[in-house]
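To whoever is on call:

I kicked off a structure prediction for a single chain this morning and the downstream step that reads the tokens threw a length-mismatch warning. I double-checked the sequence; it's 208 residues and nothing unusual in it as far as I can see. Pasting both halves so you can look.
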Amino acid sequence: GSLVVDHSTISPIATREIAAKLNANGVQMLDAPISGGSEGAANGTLSIMIGGDAAQVARAMPYLQAMGKTITHVGGQGDGQMVKLVNQILVVGNALAMSEALVFAQAGGLDLEKTFNAVANGAAGSWMFSNRAPQILNRDWRPGFTIDLQQKDLRLVKGTADDLAVPIFATNIVFDMYRTLQKEGLGGEGNHALIKALERLANVTVGK
């Protein structure tokens, strides 16, 4: 039978509804959203979080291994989408922390290259900091993932959080910061351009 592998990031509820309709017609489905940005796609090192039947995951594995490095079967249909939303909460939380830290360091008169080298591999290190802080220091806003796409995913996070009645304080703040940047026509820049909103509040420009 046919197998649909969906790599988009959409609502977990919508995913389960689509899967149910496909299953009713003899078609299997895996929700397999991805993380890793354009770099991960180009290098075949994406993280893929998969929801669906284990037998179908095994069936799709050769295809998945061609594009991903970290491939995790996280649960049933729709669970891949839920884990992707967890991922996005962490992504924007890291982006906010990175932005605050760099603005703070710049305002404090620190050498930002030395500061980066001092903290990148310690407890404060992260993929976001290691990969995007150098771009910020060079005022390089080329996207691995655009603000517009980030906002699309954060709307899904906000809607799902509302359904679950859980607070997402930092995520809501980041959403509003990105919205101000979108209004300035910056939606096509990388999600690390979040720092521009903080720079304006602090009257500080980070980097070169």
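Update from on-call: the warning came from a stale cache, not from the record. Cleared it. Sanity check on the structure: The domain at 3-77 is CATH 3.40.50.720 (Rossmann fold).
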